[in-house]
Predict the structure.
Amino acid sequence: MAKIFAVTIILIAIASAIPIVMHMWPMPQDISTHGYLIDEQYTDTMWEAGLSFLASQFLLAFFIWKFSSPKPGEKIKSLPGGAKGLVIAAFLLVGTECLALGVFGVKAWASVYFTAPSANALPVQVQAGQFAFYFRYPGPDGTFGPLHPDKISEANANFFGLDTTNDPDSKDDIVTAEMAIPVNREIHLLMHAKDVGHSFYVPELRVQQDFVPGLDVTLHFTATKIGKYEIVCTQLCGLGHYNMKAYLEVMSQEDYDAWIKQQAALQ
Amino acid sequence: MHDMSTHAVPHGAPTSFIRKHVFSIDHKVIGKQYYALALVAALVGMFLSWLMRIHLGWGSFAIPGLHLLSKNGAPGDVMTPEYYLQLMTMHGTIMVFFVLTTAPFAAFGNFFLPIQTGAEDMPFPHFNMMSFWVTFTAFLPIVASFFVSDGPTLGGWTQYAPLSAIGSAGGPGEGWGVILWATSICLFCIGQLLGSLNFITTTLDMRCKGMSLMRLPLTAWAWFITSVMGLTAFAVLMPACILLILDHVAGTSFFVASNLVINDQMLAHSGGSTLLWQHLFWFFGHPEVYIAIVPGMGIVSHILITNMRRPMLSHRVLIYSMGALAALSYMVYGHHMFVSGMNPVSSLAFSFPTLVITIPSTIVVLIWLGSLYGSKLRINSASLFSLGFISMFISGGVSGFFLAQPSIDIMLHATYFVVGHFHLVMGVAAMFGIFAGTYFWFPKMTGRMMNETLGKVHFVMSFIGAYCIFMPFHYLGIAGNVRRYQAFTDDYLIPLIPVHKFITIAALFTGLAQLIFLYNLIHSRFWGKMAPNDNPWEGTSLEWSTATPPPHNNFGDKMPVVYHDPYQYSVEGASADYVMQTSPEQLKNANEEK
């Protein structure tokens, strides 16, 4: 029984590693300027965690195999170095590993959160509500008009609660149900929640950020590959949560200019 | 050394059925009551997980009779999206609170902590009785919520505000469902606070003559450390739930910000904080992970020592490591909130202790592995589940490296990677601890043995099955599969559906194994082989010194006196392979740490 169990552990450990090694279900391709830092951090961590996983499981299996059928009269042996050796090993190995991951990880995190968007970043506001995203572009004046929650009306397609009659800044604002951005241009995303908590997750962009009702948060990123991607909600927001999504189209500058002109005409 | 100055309020053996089996103040009966509650809760929780998994694998499949559970939730026996979320929320709540907290801590702890410390009962037996009955009462609102008009809450076991605080405007179950949920958790917290007080006092004040703190078995230490965590963590969750209830019934706005709009209507709430709930919840929530797992660490250490015929390489290092896990557990809770909108500097501040907590975890694992080296390992159902616990703890632990880092969390947060991680490290590992404890202590609790063959079949199926369920969760998460979705309609998720089907089949297979356990448990309770003696596993701690099952005051006429550290196995020069704690035999080479 012990030997069967030991072999089972080994087989499970190897089988668990195969999909990772073979990239059977890999991370979606990275289309951002900062994503490589996250991916490098992920790969380093996978090496360290993967080796720790395999080594520990193999050792467990080996000890179960070896020490489960002692010969009669055999005496207990103690691991050379004892507990002290193991504690020192844990501090040195895992401590170094933690320190390294922690220190290097700061770089990737800082690239997303500790730098300000550049002056020419394109501002886009995204509003999350049960169960749809809407996007707002500031129009030719480059300024967003103020929001009036009491004016929000799905029926009148006033998703943001704009007052285009009285607010001059709102007059040229462009509201869309799909997000389009020019490739290789930094985007300054202003995130606003209408009702409950939601999240903005685009795996390819290496971006995930919760919306906080009552607190507008911002993000900035640059997409590097033209294509159509999905924005999905990752914060449980109600019965339609699974279906809350929008498309992100990364376009060439020319296509984007044509698209935004077309959207402006539709307002 | 303890002077025995504190005693439980003396109470004679009960005579009536009600005082003996229902409103009992005997810690052993209360322990069994907790176990029974956890068993019922586990069966309900597992049943819910089957329904969820079938729906995730084959969404349009009509589950025969499901409409009987909820007419609105399953018209034509097919689950609606909201009903999936409601069942998911109930699965999480029932499993985390009523199984993983109740069984390893409250059930086994109640039965064995006083015995292992050499006490005749807990110091406040009436509080102890109250603790169970309040916990039992806490289970009722959860059950009741299935039968209110729009069903139980759908907000997940974390109940993030403001969805949980705005009433039925938020969706089905967000009105009465949330009030019942918060009432249940509030009561549960009271039950655990009363229990924790008893555990702490028993450990500190009720030890018998000769039982110094370092002579306590690792189980007693684990329960003690857990009760300290319970006392502080549940004390935060309880007021949070009260505030949540007030947001529903008293028009307050603790967790709801101003100017929120639902269905084109502005909510009447104003001025609250969305993130406040998350801080309060996770300040409880992360220690809760350790409340679920630390008792398991104690239980499997205790069982392995008995079955390795040797003490751990270091008793003290294990105790200090469990203590370090408990202390650090309060400093790491923010890793649940890296992308919540909390100040990103805080994310880094929470990341470092989260990485550091892997050091005591690694030490515990290395001590287990290092102690296996050169041992004389006995294989039985209890030791197999203990070894399985170690394997699961390692697997669930290493994925923590990823989630401790905010930058990687950007990719993996709220995906199945997280679900796989916590199910392995907190769910399956803790369950394995419960199973190990059950197979090991069953003879002491009932006087009968469990069937070993069925136990081994149960183990093999559960071990393979659990890996088949939860390893693929990690792959799904890496591919970006968001959790808490009732269907996978996004273009990039559709290719992952076959993996979900595989997981569903594995879950049903693993569930079947649990039915074998249930049969074994019930059959052995009434018709199992009688325990051959009071000490069938040749253990050394106090529970093996007393009769089987133990008498009302645990030790009969003569209270025990302890002469040794708890684990005197394979001592050179001793008269036998093991020397009990109560044996006055002089040991020249005793297993003692100075």
Notes: Residues 1-5 of chain B have pLDDT under 50 and may be disordered. The CA atoms of residues 201 and 576 of chain B lie 35 Å apart.
